[in-house]
Amino acid sequence: DAPESDNPLFKTQGVRGLSRVICFSPDHSKTLPELPVDRIRGVIDTWNEQIEELGKEYVWVQVFENKGETMGCSQPHPHGQIWANSF
């Protein structure tokens, strides 16, 4: 929980949320654009399903590809993430 603040510039409130990881392929050396079109279509279909499912419970859903140390990625293989929260 965030600490309370008397400063009018800061507002605190409780937030619920989750994070999901989507591996694009069993071949972890391939990035999304390197996959065959049918595999890319499958990933996009999964994104849509997740947005629809999570959008019923959370007001904010974000889908993105996460790769590389520069992006703060903790996994060496290309993958996507979905963040959802009530904020």
UniProtKB/TrEMBL annotation:
The keyword Transferase appears for this protein: yes
Q: Which GO terms of the molecular function aspect are on file?
A: UDP-glucose:hexose-1-phosphate uridylyltransferase activity; zinc ion binding
Query: What keywords appear on the UniProt entry?
Result: Carbohydrate metabolism, Galactose metabolism, Metal-binding, Nucleotidyltransferase, Transferase
Provide the species name.
Answer: Vibrio parahaemolyticus
- EC number, UniProt record: 2.7.7.12
GO biological process annotation, one example: galactose catabolic process via UDP-galactose, Leloir pathway
Q: List the protein's name.
A: Galactose-1-phosphate uridylyltransferase
Q: Which PANTHER family match?
A: GALACTOSE-1-PHOSPHATE URIDYLYLTRANSFERASE
Keyword Nucleotidyltransferase included in the entry's annotation? yes
Domain Galactose-1-phosphate uridyl transferase N-terminal, chain residue ranges per copy: 5-87
Family from the record: Belongs to the galactose-1-phosphate uridylyltransferase type 1 family.
* Biological pathway: Carbohydrate metabolism; galactose metabolism
A GO cellular component annotated for this chain's UniProt record is:
cytoplasm
Q: What class of enzyme is it?
A: transferase
**Which InterPro entries does the annotation name?**
GalP_UDPtransf1, GalP_UDPtransf1_His-AS, GalP_Utransf_N, HIT-like_sf
The record lists the catalysed reaction(s) as: alpha-D-galactose 1-phosphate + UDP-alpha-D-glucose = alpha-D-glucose 1-phosphate + UDP-alpha-D-galactose
